[in-house]
Amino acid sequence: MMRKLICIFLLLSLTTPAHAADCIEKACIDVYTQDGKIVIEGRKGSGPVQKKSVAPAPARTKKPVIKKSPTPKPRTSGSAKPRIIPTRKPPVVRKPVIRTSKPQSLSDKLTEMLPTAGISYSPSFEPLVNVPVFFWSDIPEVITKRIEIVGEFVDVQLKPTFFWHYGDGVVYVTTKAGAPFPDGQIRHTYQKPGNYLIELITSWAGDFTVDGVRAHINGDVQTVAVLPVTVVAAPTRFTPSITYTR
Length: 246
Hints:
PKD_dom_sf; rod-shaped; Immunoglobulin-like; PKD_dom; 12 strands; 6-stranded antiparallel β-sheet
């Protein structure tokens, strides 16, 4: 049992520094969803985040200042002349201050908003019961973006899934954006006249690529668009009978 615990401890101690060193030489990029937005985070380096690194200025060594002491006046005596010995102070040399630069790190965070789908339908004026109504949205079926963060390029690809709620209890799910008559694939026929509230829920999912490595974006983003539609009954015309006589 003790051998197993020691082996596990050694494995953890060996793998932890290697994982921490992943962001030193190359950037660590993460893309996820939060509050209905796409969030891109990037980090590179091992130290605290600094906005700008300034190189330390070279230390300057001042020249030593030599002060001469005043020469004393010789005293005369009757026997011998005095000997004059000048005194000098040693120069003061200041030691240069060596500044060590701390490890630096780059970090950034970007958010991307996703478009909200617009709803269109035809015929646009008072659709009739028992007649197909064509629906479509103005959202592309694939969205690609290239974003630069901490010196790395991130390619993001997003694809929507459309949930059409026609207001009469029928729901249609598709990955197509639809088109007007006659090429549209999204169509619905109402059986009764009335006012209906069209609700389009767009669910986004995708992946991102950094240095040729693709990863899935965690989470999903949903946007909602609504539009009222009034469906009317087809007018009924009565043709009077015509009697032909000879």
